[in-house]
Design brief:
With 615 residues, this protein is of the alpha/beta class. The protein contains 25 helices and 12 strands. The strands form 2 sheets. A 6-stranded parallel sheet has the order 3-2-1-4-5-6, with helices on both faces. A 6-stranded parallel sheet has the order 9-8-7-10-11-12, sandwiched between helices. The protein is globular, with a radius of gyration of 28 Å.
Length: 615
Amino acid sequence: MRIGLLTDGGYPYATGESRLWCDRLVRGLSQHEFDLFALSRSAEQEEQGWVQLPAQVSRVRTASLWTADEDILGTHASKGPLARMVTGGGGRSYRRRERRRFTAYFTALAASVCTAGATSGEDDAAGASGGAGSGERSEDGRAGRTVVGVADAQFTDGLYGLAELAREHGGLPAALRSETAVRVLEAACRAPGTGRTVQTAAVPDFLALARELDRVLRPLSLDWYDEESLGAVDLCHATSGGAAALPGLLAKRFFGVPLLVTEHGVQLRAHYLGATDTPLSAPVRALLANFHRRLAIEVYRQAAIVTPGNTHTRRWQERCGAGQEKLRTVHPGMESGRFTALGESGDSGPDDTLVWVGRIEPAKDLIALLHAFAEVRKAEPDARLRIIGAPAQGPEGATYLAHCRALAAQLFPDEATDAHAVGDNPVSFEDIGGAEVPDLSEAYAAGGVVVLSSVVEGFPISLVEAMFCGRATVSTDVGAVVEVIGGTGLVVPPRNPRALADACLALLRDPERRARLGAAARARALELFTVEQNLAAFRGIYLELISHAPVRREADTMNTDGEPRPFATPPEAHVRGPWAASGPVPAGAADRTPRRAAEPRTVCAGVRGAGDGDV
Protein backbone atom coordinates (compact mmCIF):
# COMPACT_ATOMS: atom_id res chain seq x y z
CA MET A 1 0.00 0.00 0.00
CA ARG A 2 1.04 3.63 -0.36
CA ILE A 3 1.52 5.49 2.93
CA GLY A 4 1.51 9.28 3.15
CA LEU A 5 3.91 9.99 6.04
CA LEU A 6 3.26 13.46 7.52
CA THR A 7 6.10 15.00 9.54
CA ASP A 8 6.67 18.33 11.27
CA GLY A 9 10.24 19.45 11.90
CA GLY A 10 11.80 16.01 11.50
CA TYR A 11 12.20 13.35 8.80
CA PRO A 12 13.60 13.53 6.12
CA TYR A 13 15.69 16.41 7.48
CA ALA A 14 18.97 15.55 9.19
CA THR A 15 17.83 17.20 12.43
CA GLY A 16 14.66 16.77 14.44
CA GLU A 17 13.42 14.58 17.26
CA SER A 18 11.28 12.24 15.14
CA ARG A 19 13.96 11.67 12.49
CA LEU A 20 15.36 8.37 13.79
CA TRP A 21 11.97 6.82 14.57
CA CYS A 22 10.57 7.68 11.14
CA ASP A 23 13.66 6.34 9.37
CA ARG A 24 13.40 3.02 11.23
CA LEU A 25 9.71 2.79 10.41
CA VAL A 26 10.19 3.42 6.69
CA ARG A 27 13.15 1.06 6.39
CA GLY A 28 11.51 -1.64 8.50
CA LEU A 29 8.25 -1.70 6.51
CA SER A 30 9.90 -2.11 3.13
CA GLN A 31 6.87 -3.89 1.63
CA HIS A 32 5.02 -0.55 1.58
CA GLU A 33 5.58 2.55 -0.55
CA PHE A 34 5.99 5.86 1.27
CA ASP A 35 5.28 9.41 0.15
CA LEU A 36 6.76 11.98 2.56
CA PHE A 37 4.98 15.26 3.22
CA ALA A 38 7.34 17.24 5.46
CA LEU A 39 7.04 20.60 7.21
CA SER A 40 10.30 22.32 8.15
CA ARG A 41 10.69 24.53 11.21
CA SER A 42 13.74 26.67 10.47
CA ALA A 43 16.17 27.74 7.77
CA GLU A 44 18.96 26.02 9.72
CA GLN A 45 17.09 22.72 9.52
CA GLU A 46 16.74 22.98 5.76
CA GLU A 47 20.41 23.90 5.38
CA GLN A 48 21.40 20.65 7.14
CA GLY A 49 19.83 18.73 4.26
CA TRP A 50 18.13 15.33 4.23
CA VAL A 51 19.17 11.95 5.47
CA GLN A 52 19.74 9.25 2.88
CA LEU A 53 16.30 7.91 1.96
CA PRO A 54 15.58 4.24 1.23
CA ALA A 55 14.23 3.01 -2.09
CA GLN A 56 10.65 2.63 -0.81
CA VAL A 57 10.33 6.42 -0.50
CA SER A 58 8.83 7.27 -3.86
CA ARG A 59 8.59 11.06 -3.50
CA VAL A 60 9.04 13.90 -1.02
CA ARG A 61 7.01 17.11 -0.77
CA THR A 62 8.23 19.83 1.60
CA ALA A 63 6.95 23.18 2.86
CA SER A 64 8.25 25.78 5.32
CA LEU A 65 6.50 27.05 8.44
CA TRP A 66 9.22 29.61 9.18
CA THR A 67 9.10 31.73 6.00
CA ALA A 68 9.45 35.45 6.64
CA ASP A 69 6.29 37.54 6.80
CA GLU A 70 7.17 39.65 3.78
CA ASP A 71 7.61 36.52 1.65
CA ILE A 72 4.20 35.21 2.69
CA LEU A 73 2.47 38.50 1.92
CA GLY A 74 4.13 38.71 -1.47
CA THR A 75 5.82 42.08 -0.99
CA HIS A 76 9.18 40.79 -2.23
CA ALA A 77 9.69 41.13 -5.94
CA SER A 78 11.89 38.01 -6.08
CA LYS A 79 9.93 35.32 -4.29
CA GLY A 80 11.09 31.73 -4.62
CA PRO A 81 8.83 28.90 -5.84
CA LEU A 82 8.09 27.86 -2.25
CA ALA A 83 6.70 31.27 -1.37
CA ARG A 84 4.51 31.24 -4.47
CA MET A 85 3.33 27.73 -3.61
CA VAL A 86 2.38 28.71 -0.07
CA THR A 87 0.49 31.83 -1.03
CA GLY A 88 -1.23 30.08 -3.91
CA GLY A 89 -1.01 33.06 -6.18
CA GLY A 90 1.65 35.32 -4.73
CA GLY A 91 -0.61 36.83 -2.10
CA ARG A 92 -3.29 38.13 -4.47
CA SER A 93 -6.53 39.40 -2.95
CA TYR A 94 -9.78 37.49 -3.14
CA ARG A 95 -12.75 38.79 -5.08
CA ARG A 96 -15.91 39.96 -3.34
CA ARG A 97 -17.55 36.54 -3.16
CA GLU A 98 -14.39 34.88 -1.86
CA ARG A 99 -13.95 37.68 0.68
CA ARG A 100 -17.46 37.06 2.01
CA ARG A 101 -16.73 33.35 2.29
CA PHE A 102 -13.46 34.04 4.09
CA THR A 103 -15.15 36.40 6.53
CA ALA A 104 -17.86 33.85 7.34
CA TYR A 105 -15.43 30.96 7.85
CA PHE A 106 -12.90 32.97 9.82
CA THR A 107 -15.65 34.42 12.01
CA ALA A 108 -16.76 30.91 12.94
CA LEU A 109 -13.17 29.87 13.69
CA ALA A 110 -12.49 32.98 15.78
CA ALA A 111 -15.73 32.55 17.75
CA SER A 112 -14.79 28.98 18.68
CA VAL A 113 -11.28 29.99 19.70
CA CYS A 114 -12.55 32.84 21.89
CA THR A 115 -15.10 30.60 23.62
CA ALA A 116 -13.84 29.62 27.05
CA GLY A 117 -13.39 25.89 27.72
CA ALA A 118 -13.31 22.79 25.58
CA THR A 119 -14.75 20.21 27.96
CA SER A 120 -18.25 19.74 29.23
CA GLY A 121 -17.39 20.96 32.70
CA GLU A 122 -15.80 24.15 31.40
CA ASP A 123 -18.48 24.76 28.77
CA ASP A 124 -21.24 24.29 31.32
CA ALA A 125 -19.58 26.97 33.40
CA ALA A 126 -19.48 29.24 30.34
CA GLY A 127 -23.09 28.43 29.60
CA ALA A 128 -24.17 29.28 33.12
CA SER A 129 -22.74 32.75 32.64
CA GLY A 130 -24.57 33.19 29.35
CA GLY A 131 -21.39 32.86 27.30
CA ALA A 132 -20.83 31.70 23.78
CA GLY A 133 -20.52 28.18 25.06
CA SER A 134 -24.07 28.14 26.46
CA GLY A 135 -26.18 25.31 25.24
CA GLU A 136 -23.23 22.95 24.77
CA ARG A 137 -23.65 19.56 26.37
CA SER A 138 -21.50 16.47 26.43
CA GLU A 139 -22.61 13.62 24.21
CA ASP A 140 -23.24 11.33 27.17
CA GLY A 141 -24.23 14.06 29.64
CA ARG A 142 -21.35 13.47 32.07
CA ALA A 143 -18.96 16.21 33.21
CA GLY A 144 -15.33 15.96 32.24
CA ARG A 145 -15.98 14.34 28.84
CA THR A 146 -15.05 16.20 25.66
CA VAL A 147 -18.05 17.72 23.94
CA VAL A 148 -18.90 18.17 20.31
CA GLY A 149 -21.03 21.24 20.80
CA VAL A 150 -21.52 24.70 19.44
CA ALA A 151 -17.91 25.86 19.71
CA ASP A 152 -16.50 22.63 18.28
CA ALA A 153 -18.95 22.80 15.37
CA GLN A 154 -17.91 26.40 14.72
CA PHE A 155 -14.27 25.37 14.75
CA THR A 156 -14.72 22.56 12.23
CA ASP A 157 -16.95 24.68 9.98
CA GLY A 158 -14.39 27.46 9.99
CA LEU A 159 -11.35 25.21 9.58
CA TYR A 160 -12.67 23.13 6.69
CA GLY A 161 -14.33 26.13 5.07
CA LEU A 162 -11.00 27.97 4.99
CA ALA A 163 -9.32 24.85 3.60
CA GLU A 164 -11.85 24.56 0.78
CA LEU A 165 -11.49 28.27 0.02
CA ALA A 166 -7.69 27.95 -0.15
CA ARG A 167 -7.94 24.89 -2.37
CA GLU A 168 -10.32 26.55 -4.82
CA HIS A 169 -9.03 30.14 -4.94
CA GLY A 170 -5.44 30.22 -3.72
CA GLY A 171 -3.68 30.47 -0.38
CA LEU A 172 -4.84 32.13 2.83
CA PRO A 173 -1.85 34.11 4.18
CA ALA A 174 -2.79 37.46 2.62
CA ALA A 175 -6.37 37.15 3.90
CA LEU A 176 -5.32 35.99 7.37
CA ARG A 177 -3.10 39.06 7.73
CA SER A 178 -5.70 41.50 6.38
CA GLU A 179 -7.60 44.21 8.21
CA THR A 180 -10.75 42.10 7.86
CA ALA A 181 -9.16 39.28 9.85
CA VAL A 182 -8.05 41.67 12.60
CA ARG A 183 -11.56 43.14 12.87
CA VAL A 184 -13.07 39.66 13.06
CA LEU A 185 -10.70 38.74 15.89
CA GLU A 186 -11.52 41.95 17.74
CA ALA A 187 -15.27 41.32 17.47
CA ALA A 188 -14.87 37.72 18.67
CA CYS A 189 -12.79 38.76 21.67
CA ARG A 190 -15.29 41.47 22.62
CA ALA A 191 -18.31 39.15 22.36
CA PRO A 192 -20.20 38.28 25.58
CA GLY A 193 -19.04 35.15 27.35
CA THR A 194 -15.35 35.30 26.52
CA GLY A 195 -12.87 35.03 29.36
CA ARG A 196 -11.53 38.00 31.27
CA THR A 197 -8.04 37.55 29.90
CA VAL A 198 -9.31 37.47 26.31
CA GLN A 199 -11.40 40.60 26.77
CA THR A 200 -8.32 42.59 27.81
CA ALA A 201 -6.77 42.10 24.33
CA ALA A 202 -5.81 45.28 22.50
CA VAL A 203 -4.97 46.05 18.87
CA PRO A 204 -1.35 44.83 19.14
CA ASP A 205 -2.68 41.55 20.49
CA PHE A 206 -5.05 41.13 17.55
CA LEU A 207 -2.20 41.76 15.12
CA ALA A 208 0.03 39.26 16.93
CA LEU A 209 -2.76 36.66 17.02
CA ALA A 210 -3.43 37.08 13.28
CA ARG A 211 0.28 36.53 12.62
CA GLU A 212 0.38 33.38 14.78
CA LEU A 213 -2.80 31.94 13.25
CA ASP A 214 -1.33 32.53 9.80
CA ARG A 215 1.67 30.40 10.75
CA VAL A 216 -0.40 27.65 12.38
CA LEU A 217 -2.86 27.46 9.46
CA ARG A 218 -0.20 27.61 6.75
CA PRO A 219 -0.64 23.89 5.88
CA LEU A 220 -4.14 24.74 4.61
CA SER A 221 -2.60 26.78 1.78
CA LEU A 222 -0.31 24.07 0.41
CA ASP A 223 -0.79 22.48 -3.01
CA TRP A 224 -0.81 18.95 -1.61
CA TYR A 225 -4.55 18.37 -1.88
CA ASP A 226 -5.14 16.85 -5.31
CA GLU A 227 -5.46 13.40 -6.84
CA GLU A 228 -1.72 13.24 -7.55
CA SER A 229 -0.59 14.10 -4.01
CA LEU A 230 -2.46 13.23 -0.82
CA GLY A 231 -5.39 12.01 -2.86
CA ALA A 232 -3.18 9.24 -4.26
CA VAL A 233 -2.21 7.63 -0.92
CA ASP A 234 -4.09 4.80 0.79
CA LEU A 235 -3.35 5.92 4.34
CA CYS A 236 -2.09 9.09 6.02
CA HIS A 237 0.21 8.54 8.99
CA ALA A 238 0.83 11.75 10.96
CA THR A 239 3.91 11.38 13.16
CA SER A 240 2.62 14.01 15.59
CA GLY A 241 -0.46 16.06 16.27
CA GLY A 242 -0.79 19.76 15.54
CA ALA A 243 0.50 21.06 12.22
CA ALA A 244 1.58 17.62 10.98
CA ALA A 245 -1.96 16.28 11.34
CA LEU A 246 -3.62 19.16 9.45
CA PRO A 247 -2.82 17.75 5.97
CA GLY A 248 -4.17 14.40 7.18
CA LEU A 249 -7.44 16.02 8.23
CA LEU A 250 -7.83 17.58 4.78
CA ALA A 251 -6.91 14.34 3.00
CA LYS A 252 -9.72 12.63 4.85
CA ARG A 253 -12.08 15.54 4.18
CA PHE A 254 -11.40 15.78 0.44
CA PHE A 255 -10.57 12.18 -0.50
CA GLY A 256 -11.71 9.94 2.35
CA VAL A 257 -8.15 8.84 3.16
CA PRO A 258 -8.03 7.23 6.64
CA LEU A 259 -5.84 8.99 9.21
CA LEU A 260 -3.46 7.39 11.71
CA VAL A 261 -1.90 9.67 14.35
CA THR A 262 1.19 8.75 16.37
CA GLU A 263 2.27 10.91 19.30
CA HIS A 264 5.26 10.16 21.50
CA GLY A 265 4.65 13.47 23.25
CA VAL A 266 1.38 15.41 23.13
CA GLN A 267 1.65 18.54 20.99
CA LEU A 268 -0.94 20.31 23.15
CA ARG A 269 1.14 19.68 26.28
CA ALA A 270 4.28 20.90 24.51
CA HIS A 271 2.43 24.08 23.54
CA TYR A 272 1.34 24.67 27.12
CA LEU A 273 4.88 24.14 28.44
CA GLY A 274 6.43 26.40 25.82
CA ALA A 275 3.84 29.18 26.02
CA THR A 276 5.52 30.89 28.97
CA ASP A 277 8.80 31.18 27.06
CA THR A 278 7.32 33.27 24.25
CA PRO A 279 7.18 37.08 24.18
CA LEU A 280 3.44 36.95 23.40
CA SER A 281 0.97 38.65 25.72
CA ALA A 282 -1.34 36.74 28.05
CA PRO A 283 -4.47 37.18 25.83
CA VAL A 284 -2.63 35.88 22.75
CA ARG A 285 -1.26 32.91 24.67
CA ALA A 286 -4.74 32.09 26.00
CA LEU A 287 -6.30 32.26 22.53
CA LEU A 288 -3.57 30.13 20.96
CA ALA A 289 -4.05 27.58 23.73
CA ASN A 290 -7.77 27.47 22.90
CA PHE A 291 -6.97 26.99 19.21
CA HIS A 292 -4.57 24.11 19.84
CA ARG A 293 -7.06 22.48 22.19
CA ARG A 294 -9.82 22.65 19.58
CA LEU A 295 -7.43 21.32 16.93
CA ALA A 296 -6.39 18.41 19.15
CA ILE A 297 -10.05 17.50 19.73
CA GLU A 298 -10.73 17.48 15.98
CA VAL A 299 -7.60 15.45 15.19
CA TYR A 300 -8.52 12.77 17.72
CA ARG A 301 -12.12 12.75 16.54
CA GLN A 302 -11.22 12.24 12.88
CA ALA A 303 -8.34 9.80 13.35
CA ALA A 304 -9.18 6.15 12.74
CA ILE A 305 -6.51 5.06 15.23
CA VAL A 306 -4.33 7.06 17.63
CA THR A 307 -1.10 5.45 18.85
CA PRO A 308 0.36 7.12 21.95
CA GLY A 309 3.94 6.22 22.75
CA ASN A 310 3.24 5.75 26.45
CA THR A 311 0.50 5.85 29.07
CA HIS A 312 1.39 9.41 30.10
CA THR A 313 0.66 10.60 26.56
CA ARG A 314 -2.46 8.44 26.42
CA ARG A 315 -3.95 10.17 29.48
CA TRP A 316 -3.54 13.55 27.80
CA GLN A 317 -5.19 12.25 24.65
CA GLU A 318 -8.13 10.82 26.58
CA ARG A 319 -8.58 14.17 28.35
CA CYS A 320 -8.69 15.87 24.93
CA GLY A 321 -11.45 13.56 23.72
CA ALA A 322 -9.69 10.60 22.10
CA GLY A 323 -12.01 7.61 22.45
CA GLN A 324 -10.54 4.62 24.23
CA GLU A 325 -11.56 2.37 21.34
CA LYS A 326 -9.18 4.34 19.06
CA LEU A 327 -6.16 4.31 21.35
CA ARG A 328 -3.36 1.73 20.92
CA THR A 329 -0.25 2.29 23.02
CA VAL A 330 2.83 1.53 20.89
CA HIS A 331 6.15 2.20 22.60
CA PRO A 332 8.80 3.80 20.37
CA GLY A 333 11.29 1.24 19.11
CA MET A 334 14.97 1.74 19.86
CA GLU A 335 18.11 0.03 18.57
CA SER A 336 19.40 -2.42 21.17
CA GLY A 337 22.26 -4.00 19.19
CA ARG A 338 24.93 -1.47 20.13
CA PHE A 339 24.31 -2.14 23.83
CA THR A 340 24.34 -5.96 23.57
CA ALA A 341 27.97 -6.49 24.60
CA LEU A 342 27.65 -4.39 27.75
CA GLY A 343 24.22 -5.72 28.62
CA GLU A 344 25.29 -9.37 28.39
CA SER A 345 28.62 -8.88 30.16
CA GLY A 346 27.10 -9.15 33.63
CA ASP A 347 29.23 -6.21 34.82
CA SER A 348 27.27 -3.98 37.22
CA GLY A 349 29.77 -1.13 36.88
CA PRO A 350 32.07 0.68 39.33
CA ASP A 351 30.80 0.85 42.92
CA ASP A 352 31.70 4.50 43.45
CA THR A 353 30.46 6.25 40.30
CA LEU A 354 27.12 7.82 39.32
CA VAL A 355 26.59 8.67 35.66
CA TRP A 356 24.12 11.02 34.01
CA VAL A 357 23.68 10.90 30.21
CA GLY A 358 21.59 13.25 28.09
CA ARG A 359 21.12 16.74 26.72
CA ILE A 360 22.05 19.44 29.21
CA GLU A 361 19.10 21.81 29.63
CA PRO A 362 17.03 23.25 32.52
CA ALA A 363 14.32 20.56 32.27
CA LYS A 364 16.94 17.94 33.26
CA ASP A 365 17.43 19.68 36.64
CA LEU A 366 21.15 19.06 37.01
CA ILE A 367 21.10 21.60 39.83
CA ALA A 368 19.13 19.18 42.01
CA LEU A 369 21.46 16.36 40.96
CA LEU A 370 24.54 18.32 42.06
CA HIS A 371 22.97 19.09 45.44
CA ALA A 372 22.01 15.42 45.79
CA PHE A 373 25.58 14.40 45.01
CA ALA A 374 26.80 16.71 47.76
CA GLU A 375 24.76 14.58 50.18
CA VAL A 376 26.19 11.40 48.63
CA ARG A 377 29.75 12.69 49.13
CA LYS A 378 29.10 13.24 52.82
CA ALA A 379 28.29 9.54 53.22
CA GLU A 380 30.70 8.19 50.58
CA PRO A 381 33.75 10.49 50.27
CA ASP A 382 35.17 8.52 47.33
CA ALA A 383 32.03 8.79 45.18
CA ARG A 384 32.23 10.42 41.76
CA LEU A 385 29.65 11.91 39.37
CA ARG A 386 30.16 11.90 35.60
CA ILE A 387 27.83 14.15 33.58
CA ILE A 388 28.06 13.06 29.94
CA GLY A 389 26.31 15.01 27.20
CA ALA A 390 26.20 18.21 25.20
CA PRO A 391 24.22 21.37 25.99
CA ALA A 392 20.94 22.01 24.21
CA GLN A 393 21.16 24.15 21.09
CA GLY A 394 20.97 27.89 21.50
CA PRO A 395 22.28 30.34 24.10
CA GLU A 396 20.03 28.92 26.83
CA GLY A 397 21.80 25.54 26.73
CA ALA A 398 25.27 27.07 26.93
CA THR A 399 24.21 29.36 29.78
CA TYR A 400 22.75 26.48 31.74
CA LEU A 401 25.90 24.37 31.27
CA ALA A 402 28.05 27.27 32.52
CA HIS A 403 25.78 27.63 35.55
CA CYS A 404 26.09 23.91 36.34
CA ARG A 405 29.88 24.03 36.04
CA ALA A 406 30.04 27.02 38.37
CA LEU A 407 27.83 25.29 40.95
CA ALA A 408 29.94 22.12 40.77
CA ALA A 409 33.12 24.16 41.35
CA GLN A 410 31.47 25.86 44.32
CA LEU A 411 30.12 22.67 45.94
CA PHE A 412 33.16 20.51 45.21
CA PRO A 413 36.51 22.34 45.29
CA ASP A 414 39.35 20.51 43.59
CA GLU A 415 40.80 17.95 45.99
CA ALA A 416 44.38 16.72 46.17
CA THR A 417 45.75 13.69 48.04
CA ASP A 418 48.81 15.62 49.29
CA ALA A 419 50.59 18.94 48.99
CA HIS A 420 52.45 17.92 45.83
CA ALA A 421 49.48 16.49 43.83
CA VAL A 422 47.17 18.29 41.42
CA GLY A 423 43.63 18.79 42.67
CA ASP A 424 40.80 16.76 41.15
CA ASN A 425 37.09 17.54 41.11
CA PRO A 426 34.72 14.62 41.82
CA VAL A 427 32.26 16.00 39.24
CA SER A 428 33.22 15.86 35.56
CA PHE A 429 31.45 17.23 32.48
CA GLU A 430 32.27 15.17 29.37
CA ASP A 431 31.21 14.88 25.74
CA ILE A 432 30.52 11.64 23.89
CA GLY A 433 33.17 11.03 21.27
CA GLY A 434 36.20 11.95 23.38
CA ALA A 435 39.06 9.69 24.43
CA GLU A 436 37.39 8.54 27.67
CA VAL A 437 33.83 8.23 26.26
CA PRO A 438 34.15 7.23 22.60
CA ASP A 439 30.53 6.08 22.19
CA LEU A 440 27.19 5.88 23.97
CA SER A 441 27.77 2.39 25.29
CA GLU A 442 30.96 3.53 27.02
CA ALA A 443 29.03 6.38 28.64
CA TYR A 444 26.67 3.97 30.40
CA ALA A 445 29.53 1.63 31.27
CA ALA A 446 31.26 4.49 33.12
CA GLY A 447 28.96 4.27 36.14
CA GLY A 448 27.43 1.71 38.47
CA VAL A 449 24.18 3.69 38.75
CA VAL A 450 22.55 5.73 35.97
CA VAL A 451 20.65 8.76 37.26
CA LEU A 452 17.80 10.72 35.67
CA SER A 453 16.90 13.91 37.56
CA SER A 454 14.42 15.58 35.18
CA VAL A 455 11.46 17.72 36.21
CA VAL A 456 9.88 17.42 32.74
CA GLU A 457 10.16 14.31 30.63
CA GLY A 458 8.18 12.61 27.91
CA PHE A 459 9.49 9.18 26.97
CA PRO A 460 12.89 8.85 28.75
CA ILE A 461 15.18 7.61 25.99
CA SER A 462 18.32 7.66 28.13
CA LEU A 463 16.57 5.48 30.70
CA VAL A 464 15.72 2.84 28.08
CA GLU A 465 19.32 2.89 26.83
CA ALA A 466 20.56 2.32 30.38
CA MET A 467 18.14 -0.61 30.68
CA PHE A 468 19.50 -2.13 27.45
CA CYS A 469 22.95 -1.88 29.07
CA GLY A 470 21.79 -3.76 32.15
CA ARG A 471 22.36 -0.80 34.46
CA ALA A 472 20.47 -0.09 37.68
CA THR A 473 18.77 3.31 37.59
CA VAL A 474 17.53 6.05 39.92
CA SER A 475 14.90 8.31 38.32
CA THR A 476 12.48 11.07 39.19
CA ASP A 477 8.77 10.35 38.87
CA VAL A 478 7.95 12.44 35.79
CA GLY A 479 6.41 11.70 32.40
CA ALA A 480 6.51 8.04 31.42
CA VAL A 481 9.35 7.10 33.80
CA VAL A 482 7.31 4.76 36.03
CA GLU A 483 5.79 3.06 32.98
CA VAL A 484 9.23 2.49 31.46
CA ILE A 485 10.95 1.33 34.66
CA GLY A 486 8.14 -0.98 35.77
CA GLY A 487 9.77 -1.91 39.09
CA THR A 488 13.30 -2.48 37.74
CA GLY A 489 14.76 0.70 39.25
CA LEU A 490 14.30 3.21 42.04
CA VAL A 491 11.97 6.18 41.51
CA VAL A 492 11.91 9.31 43.70
CA PRO A 493 9.91 12.57 43.64
CA PRO A 494 11.29 15.37 41.41
CA ARG A 495 13.02 18.39 42.96
CA ASN A 496 13.97 16.35 46.05
CA PRO A 497 17.79 16.14 46.35
CA ARG A 498 17.59 14.31 49.68
CA ALA A 499 15.47 11.47 48.27
CA LEU A 500 17.66 11.31 45.16
CA ALA A 501 20.78 11.02 47.30
CA ASP A 502 19.32 8.28 49.51
CA ALA A 503 18.33 6.18 46.49
CA CYS A 504 21.78 6.55 44.89
CA LEU A 505 23.50 5.56 48.15
CA ALA A 506 21.28 2.51 48.52
CA LEU A 507 22.37 1.16 45.13
CA LEU A 508 26.03 2.19 45.36
CA ARG A 509 26.35 0.22 48.61
CA ASP A 510 24.63 -2.94 47.30
CA PRO A 511 26.31 -4.41 44.18
CA GLU A 512 24.14 -7.55 44.24
CA ARG A 513 20.96 -5.49 44.17
CA ARG A 514 22.33 -3.42 41.31
CA ALA A 515 23.04 -6.58 39.34
CA ARG A 516 19.53 -7.96 39.92
CA LEU A 517 17.84 -4.71 38.95
CA GLY A 518 20.06 -4.31 35.91
CA ALA A 519 19.26 -7.79 34.61
CA ALA A 520 15.53 -7.25 35.14
CA ALA A 521 15.73 -3.87 33.42
CA ARG A 522 17.45 -5.33 30.37
CA ALA A 523 14.87 -8.10 30.06
CA ARG A 524 12.03 -5.57 30.26
CA ALA A 525 13.59 -3.28 27.66
CA LEU A 526 14.15 -6.13 25.22
CA GLU A 527 10.54 -7.17 25.57
CA LEU A 528 8.86 -3.77 25.21
CA PHE A 529 11.12 -1.16 23.63
CA THR A 530 12.85 -2.68 20.59
CA VAL A 531 12.49 -1.67 16.97
CA GLU A 532 11.09 -5.11 16.18
CA GLN A 533 8.06 -4.79 18.47
CA ASN A 534 7.39 -1.28 17.14
CA LEU A 535 7.45 -2.43 13.52
CA ALA A 536 5.25 -5.45 14.26
CA ALA A 537 2.65 -3.19 15.86
CA PHE A 538 2.48 -0.75 12.94
CA ARG A 539 2.52 -3.55 10.38
CA GLY A 540 -0.68 -4.87 11.94
CA ILE A 541 -2.26 -1.43 12.29
CA TYR A 542 -1.61 -0.59 8.62
CA LEU A 543 -3.27 -3.82 7.51
CA GLU A 544 -6.21 -3.26 9.83
CA LEU A 545 -6.86 0.25 8.52
CA ILE A 546 -6.50 -0.63 4.85
CA SER A 547 -8.88 -3.57 5.30
CA HIS A 548 -11.61 -1.03 6.09
CA ALA A 549 -10.56 1.37 3.32
CA PRO A 550 -9.43 -0.64 0.25
CA VAL A 551 -7.10 0.86 -2.32
CA ARG A 552 -8.74 2.70 -5.23
CA ARG A 553 -6.22 2.57 -8.06
CA GLU A 554 -6.68 -0.30 -10.48
CA ALA A 555 -2.91 -0.55 -10.97
CA ASP A 556 -2.53 -1.27 -7.28
CA THR A 557 -4.97 -4.17 -7.16
CA MET A 558 -2.29 -6.53 -8.53
CA ASN A 559 1.29 -7.02 -7.40
CA THR A 560 4.33 -7.55 -9.62
CA ASP A 561 3.57 -11.29 -9.93
CA GLY A 562 0.04 -10.65 -11.15
CA GLU A 563 -1.47 -11.78 -7.86
CA PRO A 564 -4.22 -9.74 -6.14
CA ARG A 565 -2.94 -7.45 -3.41
CA PRO A 566 -4.35 -8.03 0.08
CA PHE A 567 -7.41 -5.88 0.77
CA ALA A 568 -7.47 -4.51 -2.79
CA THR A 569 -11.20 -5.23 -2.67
CA PRO A 570 -13.40 -5.51 0.42
CA PRO A 571 -13.59 -9.07 1.78
CA GLU A 572 -17.40 -8.93 1.71
CA ALA A 573 -17.24 -8.54 -2.07
CA HIS A 574 -16.56 -12.28 -2.23
CA VAL A 575 -19.65 -13.22 -0.18
CA ARG A 576 -22.96 -13.95 -1.84
CA GLY A 577 -25.71 -11.62 -0.83
CA PRO A 578 -27.29 -8.22 -1.54
CA TRP A 579 -24.21 -6.40 -0.24
CA ALA A 580 -21.66 -8.08 -2.51
CA ALA A 581 -19.93 -5.90 -5.08
CA SER A 582 -20.67 -7.00 -8.63
CA GLY A 583 -17.45 -5.76 -10.18
CA PRO A 584 -14.18 -4.00 -9.53
CA VAL A 585 -14.19 -1.24 -6.95
CA PRO A 586 -14.94 2.01 -8.79
CA ALA A 587 -12.80 5.07 -8.37
CA GLY A 588 -13.79 7.79 -5.95
CA ALA A 589 -13.53 8.64 -2.29
CA ALA A 590 -16.76 6.86 -1.48
CA ASP A 591 -15.20 3.55 -2.52
CA ARG A 592 -13.28 3.49 0.73
CA THR A 593 -16.51 2.54 2.49
CA PRO A 594 -17.25 -1.21 2.34
CA ARG A 595 -20.20 -2.08 0.14
CA ARG A 596 -22.34 -3.51 2.90
CA ALA A 597 -21.88 -0.36 4.98
CA ALA A 598 -23.25 1.70 2.11
CA GLU A 599 -26.28 -0.54 1.47
CA PRO A 600 -29.58 0.47 3.07
CA ARG A 601 -30.73 -1.77 5.87
CA THR A 602 -33.57 -4.13 4.92
CA VAL A 603 -36.27 -4.89 7.45
CA CYS A 604 -38.56 -7.87 7.19
CA ALA A 605 -42.19 -7.09 6.30
CA GLY A 606 -44.37 -6.48 9.29
CA VAL A 607 -41.44 -5.84 11.63
CA ARG A 608 -40.80 -2.37 13.05
CA GLY A 609 -37.29 -1.67 14.32
CA ALA A 610 -36.20 1.13 16.58
CA GLY A 611 -36.47 4.27 14.49
CA ASP A 612 -37.77 2.37 11.43
CA GLY A 613 -41.01 3.11 9.68
CA ASP A 614 -43.56 0.58 8.47
CA VAL A 615 -42.32 -1.64 5.67
